[in-house]
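Hey, can you fold this one?
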Amino acid sequence: MRRVINGKVVFAILFGVYFVLAGLTMPAASAAGTDSLSGIRTAKAVFDFRIGTGTAVAHLNLIHNTFKELKEAGKSPDAVVVFIGPSVNLISSSRKGLTDDERRVLDDVARKVTEMSKDGIRFEICMVAAKVFKVDPTTILPEISQVPNGWVSLIGFQNQGYALVPAY
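Sure. Predicted structure:
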């Protein structure tokens, strides 16, 4: 019997493989060599994170590496990741009704969030989205601050001078 693979699944797999291979094969880029950082001491960014399970870990790795590059460039990075939309399902400790693959992804996300948090990256979850996606607030990872509305949070950070970086 022949199996038909969903196009979205193939795309997600290839996209994830690309990020892994790109990280392994590219020489480490130095953020210090870019004109965009000239004259700044602090690099403030807020990441609007709306990704589902497909490439979430790859994107979190990219955010983490960006943070580290800014630090290596002598800039003081200040980063916040705000989970909005379907991404709120990624940061729950609940594993009810999930496949083994989905459990592995959530475990990888939880490990990455802990690692990033230890490096000083802050996290928030939009409780409007948590309610819509039926995420029990008691299951949200401990490193993540619960905010009533993620959009209000994004607006606030932008008005404090944080650069908005979409992660969709």
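The longest strand covers residues 42-49. Let me know if you want another pass with a different chain boundary.
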